[in-house]
Design a protein that fits this description.
Strand content of chain A: 5-15%
Number of strands of chain A: 4
Shape of chain A: globular
Shape of chain B: globular
Number of strands of chain B: 5
Number of helices of chain B: 5
Oligomer: heterodimer
Radius of gyration of chain B: 20 Å
Largest sheet of chain B: 5 strands, antiparallel
Number of domains of chain A: 1
Helix content of chain B: 40-55%
Structural class of chain A: mainly alpha
Strand content of chain B: 15-25%
Number of helices of chain A: 9
Radius of gyration of chain A: 19 Å
Largest interface: A-B, 32 and 26 residues
Order of helices and strands of chain B: HHEEEEEHHH
Amino acid sequence: MANKSFVGEIIRGIIKDNPVFVLVLGLCPTLAVSTSFANALGMALAFTFVMLGSNIFVSLLRKQIPADVRIPIFILIICTFVTMIDMMLEAFLPPMYDALGIFVPLIVVNCIVIGRAEAYANRNPVLPSIADGIGISIGFAAALMLIGSIREILGTGGLKLVMLNVVDGVPGFYPLSAIPGLSFIPEVIKFPIEPAVVMITPPGAFLTIATLMLLFKIMGDRKRVKQLIKEGYEL
Amino acid sequence: MILIKLTLVAAVAAAVLTATYGVTQEQLDKLAAEAGGPDKQLLEMGVVPDATKYKAVSGGEICYEAYDGGDLIGYGAMFEVQGMQDMLTLAVGVDPDFVVTGVVVVSQKETPGIGSKVQEQPEFVAQFAGVGPDGLTLSSDGGEIDAISGASVSSGYVTAGVAEIVGKMQEEVS
């Protein structure tokens, strides 16, 4: 692992090991929360906290964790972080807690976190594990927001771009137009299409994910074919 | 050895969570104190539009009398009722004849993007205004409330919840 760079590990998590499109993990929360851009962003932020916390602690304890009971210990660590962020959001950021609602406790059953604990953090030192956590989190966030945006546009005919911001001392999700200098962006960007409600229902999520996964696969295969040709294979 | 390690991790997790709980609970109590009691919240939500003051019904549990100055103009209540997945908190206001004047979905944990529309689409709860106790069912069941298309189950729970709260208020007042 020593020859792998920190940045390289992050990029691997985003593209080559993209949790949703390549590892095909965590589809349950992906289907459930990718109904809109705002939901996807909130889930991604809470997920990042848990992913990093879990990877760091599993990695730190990896030499102490007995192999026989590693799964219960991973789950204990993950649950602790999920419960912590859930309680802290409720107390200190109530508007965001209301916006995220059920999504935060759902991270407990997110198999990406436990998957990375088992496949990566349990076998690697802390620094690469942090890089892995960052990369996987960005990869998950990008996938969620991409799916969320597509479903929101096709399902409602508009896209509401938001970001985490503090307005009048109250943290929460606000439209991009609330930021000085960006007020030219409309709160809801309208698209001239007939909205199809099916896209914001679960079948719409399957359709979107399947299409995106196909694109990812085609891109990956093309790259591999090029690589093989370069190495002198006749095709 | 394995048992000791497992116990150790569990103990540390419990200690961390206990500490977090202590801190957050303190903050939550502070927030609740700032928000005021149900009477203040009912006033802020305006479920009985002209009310200027709410006073608990004597002997009641959830029902508040709504006053405009010195005149009794209705009743308000905030209560948890069953939703599709979890509890819904609804605030309901009625006039003295128990005709609904306003409904607010205070909190809900329905399916995001689907059932959550009962809170996100104010047109839905606006339908309740002017509906008497007998009309508080979905139009598909012969009532006066049109379900949100695609969210008929959650719409049904909200409607049943409003009927339940109005019923409780009638009981407590009489």
